[in-house]
Amino acid sequence: MDVIADNLPAYLQGFSLTLRLTLYAGGLALAIGLVLAAMRVSPLRPMRGFAATYVELLRNTPLTLVFFFIILVAPRFGVLLPLDFIGFAVVALTLYTAAFVCEAIRSGINSVGIGQAEAARAIGLTFGQTLNQVILPQAFRTVIPPLINVFIALAKNTSVAAGFGVVDLMGTGRRLATANPGGVTWVLVGVALGYLVITITLGAIAAQVERKVAFTR
Amino acid sequence: MAPEQTSTSPAPDLTTMGEPLVVLDGVNKHFGALHVLQDINLTVHRGEVVVIIGPSGSGKSTLCRAINRLETIDTGTISIDGQPLPAEGKALARLRADVGMVFQSFNLFAHKTVLENVTLGPIKAKGVKRSAAREDALRLLDRVGVANQAEKLPAQLSGGQQQRVAIARALAMQPKVMLFDEPTSALDPEMINEVLDVMVSLARDGMTMIVVTHEMGFARKAAHRVVFMDGGQIVEEADPETFFTAPRSDRAKDFLSKILTH
Asked: pLDDT by residue (tens digit) across B155-169?
């Protein structure tokens, strides 16, 4: 157990990077996923087709493979991102998570009765206005639980970056385990606790938001 | 609901009727193998009140919804005020702003107050100032008798009140024509009249209206013309008096005998 206390600064550094990976990739994935979800319910067939293809492609590819594609394959096709490995990790996590965010939001959109969209269109609102003014505000509440699931998965998925030389919480754990072969168990317990702090907080925030939205309805 | 025998409706004076406003020409639509609209030709003039009746599944709701393109059609043309219905996009949104629609299930925006329901269209689709939209909305809510409910959410209102708000919401766009798709079919019996009263007063004020309904009393009181549909076709058109007392087609006679026996 001492191994955790002795290496607290290293843990905190790793934890801070994992937290940042989660926040950056989460924020970007939320924005991209929202656009993708709008495209999936768009009246324009090419938009729907693009978004559906994107989602199927990304959510059915193992995350590690997405990392490899961005770090190793993309440069061969001339896509040279001016990023370090942390940057690559954010891109890979964002692209991957956006597919799941899209589907979570789409499930919320589908939970709002079709009559709401018809009424909005009937008073002359455009597709975008219908979505922003009428559908998404009502979808918000149903979207929170599946969306938080996605973000919890993201927080844990950031650990894949450790396999690509990123010294996040998981990466820190690997280093400490190598340095302290006798204390591997406690080293990993420390890592697990770090992830728990993030995921449990996410769950608590979700519960809070859900309660708040329920009252204002 | 039996039609009142002492109808006070003034004989509809078709000479005061304006130019054609809604024109359907050779409209066809299929739902899979079902031919729901079969070569429909219908012209509604400015200021005219047309009631569409017919058994369920006759295509009357589909016809009503096709007029603001909530249903697309396969062939034929529909034009409003000389303008053919545009394809999906900004132009269609603009045209829909000119066509008021009232649904069977009200479809008030559940997360917005009554007042916000009425002001949303003018503010977002027409760029009306918030304060002006609010003033206008309160006047309309007063007209349909629910001004005192302005700050409530739709779920807190009775069905009849919700439907009257829906009418106010449509009127706030200052539409050229109002479409009613079975506006009283989802209401408890005691609330039907409060909605019909608003509709009758609209008709008296010269609003162009296309009304799908089973309320024969309303047809007698307010309609200039009754259109009877069956099996996706317009079977018969006549002024209400003629239609209800001397229907020509057997299908219309059969339909009327079924609904007017009580």
From this structure: 999 999 999 999 999
Q: Which residues of B touch A213 (CB under 8 A)?
A: none
Of all residues in chain A, what percent carry a pLDDT higher than 90?
Answer: 76
The HSE-up count of residue A111 (CA atoms within 13 Å, CB side) is: 16
The first and second tokens of residue B151, run together, are 């700050």
Greater confidence (A1 vs A77) lies with A77
Cβ–Cβ of A124/B93 closer than 8 Å?
Answer: yes
CB pairs under 8 A between A and B: 70
CA atoms within 13 A on the CB side of A42: 18
Break chain A into its structural domains and give their ranges: 2-216
Chain center to CA of A186: 28
Residues of B in contact with A129 (CB under 8 A): 124-125
- Mean local confidence (pLDDT), B202-223: 93
Output the pLDDT for position B2. 44
Portion of chain B with pLDDT greater than 70, in percent: 93
**Measured between beta carbons, which residues in chain A are less than 8 angstroms from residue B88?**
43-44, 127
Nearest to B125 among A113, A119, A125 (CB): A125
User: What's the pTM?
Assistant: 0.85
Q: What is the DSSP string of A15-83?
A: HHHHHHHHHHHHHHHHHHHHHHHHHHT-S-HHHHHHHHHHHHHHHTS-HHHHHHIIIIIHHHTT-----
- Chain A CB contacts of B107 under 8 Å are 113, 115-116, 118-119
For the domain made up of A2-216, the CATH class stated in words is mainly alpha
Smallest CA–CA distance from B118 into chain A, residue: A123
Rounded Cα distance between A203 and A145, Å, is 9
Query: What pLDDT, in 10s, does the model give residues B120-154?
Result: 999 999 999 999 999 999 999 999 999 999 999 99
Kind of pairing between the strands at B83-84 and B75-80: antiparallel
**Which structure tokens are listed for B145?**
């008798």
Q: Would the CB atoms of B121 and A123 count as touching at under 8 Å?
A: yes
Give me the pLDDT at residue B262, please.
Answer: 59
